[in-house]
Write a structure and sequence with these properties.
15 helices, 79% helix, 411 residues, mainly alpha, single chain, disordered N terminus, globular
Length: 411
């Protein structure tokens, strides 16, 4: 029998057991930057131009975008099941085709109904191309050293706003918002369709249950467990607080008398902190237990939000707090990516992650609208940040109940 030469396609693992196709990691770095940059970060840059040019209310255009994120959360459950059984190539390639098509519908929309339809389709594309399917691919191909691979991809993904927010602004300065979205759709198609189709062709390996208490008979015991639902509650509360704080950080600064430029710098440097935070997660994971790490990081999210609420000045200190909040957010991204594997192994990672992430993604989608809605009755954005801190703290408390029971015990 001829032994296949895998030297060109497999990275050394130290054990020789796991096949790690070399093209996957750089490919997913490229596609995460592009997918997030075009489908997510271009919208907040273009939305003021869209509303000015069309006369459509900003609340309704934002609602269309939020609806896309909700669709992404719902479709993500199905995507996770497909990933578990068939791998990422087909689903991520299909998502890459759907993404540009949906943006072309958005760009050509003659009215809000068609505009919203385009975004609903974009939501399905997000479910198939954003972090969750990429995390599922890396967790299966790279396990048990998946944290390193996840860190690399999220570091790259953190550059999406850095690359595409300025690029979108430059395009919008020379072209209409419709032409800008058409150009971005072309970029998305060119960089993601062939990359996913060609780089994700490696055989889909069988799962190895490396978690503390892997489910013996399928994902249902985990889904029915108290630990699973407490973890879902933790991530939902944390996601709502985190995304509402990010979106309303600029209004908070403006409310305190700072300029739009100063507020934008604080937000941008917070994004740099997010990238820095992701480089620290592997070390944190080696020195902390799963429950301690979960409760601590979610609690720190609440603490940094409270600090921003109670610190009106000086500007330099506020920037430091924004960076610290970004560091926490960066760690939280990887915490969620590893939560299933740490508790239940990799066998049903896609489905469990989809179910676990759906309410959190929905909360993140609603957070911008809810934050803006709550600020006025609460008396301003500082009071809103106090409420968001309390919500994150509640998530840290529920995190203490996310320890799975050993197999054989009732959930």
């Amino acid at each position: 029998m001829t032994v296949p030469n895998t030297k060109a396609s497999v990275t050394a693992t130290g054990t020789g057991v796991r096949s790690r196709p070399r093209a996957v990691l750089p490919a997913l770095c490229i596609t995460q930057i592009t997918s997030w940059g075009v489908l997510y970060y271009a919208f907040p840059v273009l939305n003021p131009t869209i509303t000015h040019a069309t006369g459509w209310p900003a609340s309704l255009t934002t609602a269309a975008f939020s609806a896309a994120l909700i669709v992404s959360a719902a479709v993500g459950i199905y995507v996770g099941r497909v990933l578990d059984h068939h791998g990422p190539r087909a689903v991520m390639t299909a998502g890459s085709v759907l993404g540009p098509l949906s943006l072309l519908i958005v760009a050509a929309a003659p009215n809000l109904a068609v505009f919203t339809t385009g975004w609903l389709l974009a939501g399905a594309s997000m479910a198939a191309t954003f972090y969750p399917p990429a995390f599922a691919a890396l967790t299966r191909w790279w396990s048990p050293d998946h944290i390193r691979a996840l860190t690399v991809v999220t570091l790259a993904g953190g550059l999406a706003s850095t690359v595409f927010a300025p690029l979108t602004a430059v395009l919008a300065g020379h072209y209409s918002w419709r032409t800008t979205y058409a150009v971005l759709a072309a970029i998305l198609a060119a960089l993601t369709i062939p990359t996913h189709a060609l780089a994700l062709r490696a055989p889909w390996p069988p799962a190895s249950d490396a978690g503390t208490h892997p489910p013996a008979t399928g994902p249902d015991p985990a889904v029915r467990s108290r630990a699973f639902w407490m973890l879902a509650a933790t991530f939902t509360l944390s996601a709502f607080a985190m995304y509402a704080a990010v979106i309303t950080l600029v209004p908070l600064f403006l409310e305190r008398g700072y300029t739009t430029t100063q507020a934008a710098w604080a937000l941008g440097l917070g994004g740099a902190g997010q990238t820095l935070g992701r480089t620290l997660y592997a070390t944190l994971a080696r020195h902390t237990g799963t429950i301690t790490r979960t409760a601590t990081l979610v609690g720190l999210g609440g603490l940094t939000t409270a600090a921003l609420a109670f610190t009106p000045s000086p500007y330099a200190l506020l920037v430091v707090l924004s960076v610290l909040a970004g560091i926490v957010r960066g760690n939280l991204t990887l915490l969620q990516a590893t939560a299933v594997t740490d508790r239940w192994g990799t066998a049903h990672y896609g489905r469990l992650s989809g179910l676990l992430g759906a309410p959190a993604h929905a909360a993140a989608a609603l957070a911008p609208f809810a934050g803006a809605l709550l600020a006025a009755p609460l008396g301003g954005y500082a009071s809103l940040f106090v409420l968001l801190s309390a919500i994150a703290t509640a998530g840290a408390i529920t995190a203490l109940a996310t320890t799975p029971r050993p197999p054989g015990r009732s959930p």
